[in-house]
Fold this protein.
Amino acid sequence: MKTRIAIVEDTKGLRTTIGEWLSDSKDLLLVGSCESAEVALRDLPTQKPDVVLMDINLPGADGIECVRKLKPQLPEAQFLMLTVYEDTQKIFAALEAGATGYLLKRASRERLLQAIDEMKSGGSPMSAQIARKVVQSFHRGNPKQDFALSPREAEILKLLAEGLLYKEIADHFGNSVYTINAHIRRVYEKLHVQSRSQAVAKYLKL
């Protein structure tokens, strides 16, 4: 089965270029190409993409608001923000809205396709500059103090924020993926969230 992809980008040239990149991959199928949040909100719920490449700076409603409204309608879809912004508040707002990854628009074709593959495997791809900002935010505080997480749960939350796959986290601790999943479920319960991006965003916001 091909991965169904949709693009939400107001710049026609960039939208066309990304569409061509995707069409060249035998594993991906472009099912939607939208120039605004309004068009995306109208079309994507019926097109049912697996991955949405979302610009932030859109005319009308911005990409963050678009993700916030689409996520309840497409709970299984993964949202990858593509933007020129490295602003910390926009990063965290996008994660809180339901985005799974955050790449700068200057990312290469190879990096974009790699990011899509990472998302399919449970990862949270981020440009190096973005990941550094997330890690720096964790270094400013200890998550277990705020949310009564155990040391192991706090470390897992930190690794989730750094974009590691569940298997990579399991290998880091020498545990099974099943054990890590159990830890992650307890983290979600303590933070009162339902996804990786919401867990990371809630800690970073507070």
